[in-house]
User: Which sequence fits this backbone?
């Protein structure tokens, strides 16, 4: 199966057998490691401390690989990451993220934030013929820190760029900040996407509402019907709590925030869902009928983050996808995206002449490992052109980042189907017991990557003998956790 999936992705890149596409507009970057938004001296101290703590955590991960789980229709490119930080000593040696992906002049453009050891981030540019292989611009960074004392003298991050067809201008909205930790969203323009002029009245947007916390960031924009629409995160740095708000503007400079903000809040519930602590870094496009948002969610402070999907008729009222989350971290020791994934940038394939043909959607996303090194990866979704909403997997609703899950249902005379989920890389054991506690059958005993799985018990014991119908117990166990479900075997 893995081999077949690799063939599909290779064909997709080559344009063989599928409908490939030129993206209709530019898509943005947003979001950031929260400590970047502290006063710069404090941020450096915290960065070193967090790195050390996470390296210790990573060292405890078992170095085991297993078959990749089949959670969602999105499949990660086998040669990820496709864009990495710069060499040691460079302005981007620690991380490369906060990217915007665009398609213009018959090539892909990647505007991204480079992080040096000083954490004084700036913005660079790379281009690509295929969205996979990138060449950095020789004048990087193409947007630099402001002069001492200016509002953006310490950091530039979380930019979104779109090309305004009416004005023939590239337009950028970016987060800037001072060394004291005061931040806002600024505005800049360019005729070529390389040389930028900052707006003299920056910043154009700042925190004004209690829900916005410490700063607003993670913005993504569209221009529709002559109006700019912005979705952005309001982040409380101290607590790591974030919400998503909405604002509009006639000129991209003067903004009106929606009075009903935030438009997406954490999915509060008991037990807490996968995005029940914070939501951030929205990525929005309009398919001609509805808005689609891909966003980052996490369940606990500074925890693992995944990517989810929601839809809206107006950009304000959002409905979460029942198939959420749509992309998971790969929690394997040494893997580049085993801690957090976030900042997706989705290019949906346009409809081909024959709606029955298959098309390939692309998603660029940021992955971060336990050293806080951020890099850019790529994922694909293959679907029928006339089917936008991919059905939810049989077992995906309600899964969270730190709980096992187990379901069981009779699937025919003498058989039971068991679906189980692990949010961690773990040695899993799935066992059937009799009501008296005797072991009847071991169905699974092997390392598993995070994700959902399915197996069937055929009503036999470990010796291959048929057992009597009636009540049994299915037990899903790791070294530290145990989950049990009653099952009934019928003939």
Assistant:
């Amino acid at each position: 199966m893995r081999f077949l999936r690799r063939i599909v992705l290779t064909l997709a890149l080559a344009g063989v057998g599928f409908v490939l596409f030129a993206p209709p507009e530019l898509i943005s970057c947003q979001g950031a490691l929260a400590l970047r938004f502290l006063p710069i001296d404090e941020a450096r101290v915290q960065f070193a401390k967090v790195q050390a703590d996470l390296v210790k955590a990573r060292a405890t991960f078992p170095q085991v690989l297993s078959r990749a789980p089949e959670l969602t229709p999105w499949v990660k490119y086998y040669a990820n990451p496709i864009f990495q930080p710069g060499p040691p000593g460079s302005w981007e040696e620690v991380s490369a993220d906060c990217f915007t992906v665009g398609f213009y002049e018959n090539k892909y453009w990647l505007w991204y934030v480079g992080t040096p050891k000083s954490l004084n981030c700036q913005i660079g540019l790379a281009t690509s013929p295929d969205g996979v292989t990138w060449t950095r611009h020789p004048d990087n960074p193409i947007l630099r820190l402001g002069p001492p004392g200016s509002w953006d003298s310490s950091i530039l991050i979380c930019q979104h760029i779109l090309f305004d067809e009416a004005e023939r201008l590239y337009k950028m909205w970016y987060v800037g900040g001072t060394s004291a930790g005061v931040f806002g969203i600024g505005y800049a323009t360019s005729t070529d996407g390389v040389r930028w002029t900052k707006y003299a009245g920056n910043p154009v947007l700042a925190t004004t509402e209690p829900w916005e916390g410490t700063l607003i960031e993670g913005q993504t924009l569209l221009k529709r019907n002559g109006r700019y629409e912005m979705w952005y995160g309001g982040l409380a740095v101290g607590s790591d709590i974030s919400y998503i708000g909405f604002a509009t503007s006639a000129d991209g400079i003067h903004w009106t925030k929606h009075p009903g903000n935030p438009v997406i809040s954490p999915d509060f519930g008991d037990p807490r869902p996968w995005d029940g602590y914070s939501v951030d870094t929205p990525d929005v496009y309009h398919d001609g009928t509805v808005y689609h948002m891909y966003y980052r969610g996490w369940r606990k402070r500074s925890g693992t983050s995944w990517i989810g999907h929601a839809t809206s008729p107006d950009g304000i009222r959002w409905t979460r996808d029942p198939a959420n989350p749509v992309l998971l971290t790969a929690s394997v020791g040494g893997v580049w995206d085993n801690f957090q994934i976030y900042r997706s940038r989705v290019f949906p394939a346009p409809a081909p002449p024959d709606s029955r043909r298959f098309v390939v959607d692309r998603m660029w996303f940021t992955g971060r490992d336990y050293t806080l090194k951020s890099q850019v990866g790529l994922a694909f979704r293959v679907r029928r052109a006339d089917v936008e909403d991919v059905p939810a997997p049989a077992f995906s609703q309600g899964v969270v980042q730190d709980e096992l899950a187990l379901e069981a249902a009779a699937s025919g005379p003498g058989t039971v189907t068991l679906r189980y989920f692990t949010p961690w890389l773990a040695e899993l054991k799935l066992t059937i017991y009799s009501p008296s506690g005797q072991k009847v059958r071991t169905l699974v005993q092997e390392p598993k990557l995070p994700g959902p799985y399915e197996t069937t018990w055929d009503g036999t014991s470990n010796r291959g003998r048929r057992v009597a119908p009636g009540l049994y117990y299915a037990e899903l166990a790791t070294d530290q956790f145990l989950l049990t479900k009653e099952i009934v075997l019928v003939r």
Observations:
- The two ends are 33 Å apart (CA to CA).
